[in-house]
Protein: Antibiotic biosynthesis monooxygenase
Amino acid sequence: MIAKTIRTPYYAVVFSSVKTGEDNAYDEMADSMMELARRQPGFLGAESARNEVGITVSYWESLDAIKKWQAHPAHQIAQERGKENWYEKYAVRICKVESDYFFEK
Amino acid sequence: MIAKTIRTPYYAVVFSSVKTGEDNAYDEMADSMMELARRQPGFLGAESARNEVGITVSYWESLDAIKKWQAHPAHQIAQERGKENWYEKYAVRICKVESDYFFEK
Structure:
């Protein structure tokens, strides 16, 4: 679903990845990380889709909230397992959302 | 694929959408818009995936390049058709990419 976010400015983390194919409990970890992210202070929402490339965009109130989430011990472990097992490559882009526009039928 | 972008800062447009199900030449329009975008000044790359929600992130050198692309006549027509036919809802978020990190095995 499309995340309902707050008035700009807020922050986004764009995580784009290509997987190795070693699936090895990937979905369980991805789901558990998303549940954990939702409980972090400053989390606003997230959107995710995967075909050849996977894209997860999470939205946050501040850069500080993003830093704390990136440093969360369980997230650190997931990041290590991601590099060892699941991801062929990825990009993380930390963004300030300066303006937004929503359309709904 | 994961876009190869320039040194930060640069800009990103996160386009998140839910489709109506009326397909009506959607893929042709989406492909043709992506080809056209690639030829615009300041375009750096794009990433795209769709499941329940579709996410396309395009990267640009400047806000000005984004404004020009949004105002491009062929893109305007595509945007109108998108609202009329293809999209149940969408969000467009204009972002400044402040930092990035790349991993490759």
Notes: The first helix of chain A runs from residue 26 to 38. Chain A is about 35% helix and 40% strand. Strands of chain A lie at 10-19, 43-50, 54-60, 87-104. The CA atoms of residues 35 and 85 of chain A lie 21 Å apart.
